[in-house]
Amino acid sequence: MNVVILCGGLGTRLSEETQLRPKPMVEIGGRPILWHIMRLYDRHEFRSFVLALGYRGDTIKDYFLNYHARQSDVTIRMRTAEVQFSNPAVEDWSVTLVDTGRDTQTGGRLLRLRDRIAPHGTFMLTYGDGLANIDLRALLSFHRSQKRVATVTAVRPPARFGELQIDGGLVSEFAEKPQVGTGWVSGGFFVFEPRIFDFIDDDTTMLERMPMERLVREKQLAAYHHTGYWHAMDTLRDKNHLEAQWAAGAPPWMA
User: Fold this and answer.
1) Taking the C-alpha atoms of 63, 69, 73 and 75 in order, what is their torsion angle to the nearest 10 degrees?
2) What domain range is 74 assigned to?
3) What is the largest CA-CA distance in the chain?
4) What is the domain count for the chain?
5) Cα–Cα distance, 195 to 121 (Å, whole number)
């Protein structure tokens, strides 16, 4: 099954990191966040990836073109230019990298992949900036049971600030950055049927707007509730938070 990862945005809210590289290549623990996302799918035996590139897509292409060499010991025969790799620790992934345009919107990026994706049936999609410990097999099973065009993963994100419970002018409870207790938001991690392409008009279509609104009207969007770990990397603060979780050992998205 194909996994589409949208990797083309500008990442303007993380400009400290994205002036020279696309957001999916921002590193957590010495590896691009994109690698961490792909490892999540790998753990659930989804290993065929299609990356929709845009802003500085050449950086992502270069990373994967040189991936084998980066992960291996290398012997170079200087006279013949022969290269031998040894002790490779390389994942068994198929990675297709497609330039979907620098200014194309998220729905448009997906639409440009139609001929590659649609013939193979059901597929998954996520963004190149969010980490989670979602049971992707359970997500897929839920999607199939609902028999809808699309399924979105609903999450309760971590709060940005500590939460205070106040009683009579005194703080009765202090919770440091608890998970939001009410309401759900889209955590990405979609499953789609090929009919989703009928809901996208052109390059200017934002996947999160008209297509989702129409799916809702036609009762074709199911919600899979994930109550475990989820965190998006939108800002430098988020990046530093994820780095701290990695440094502490056993990062929650690897659980």
Assistant:
1) -150
2) 2-254
3) 82
4) 1
5) 9
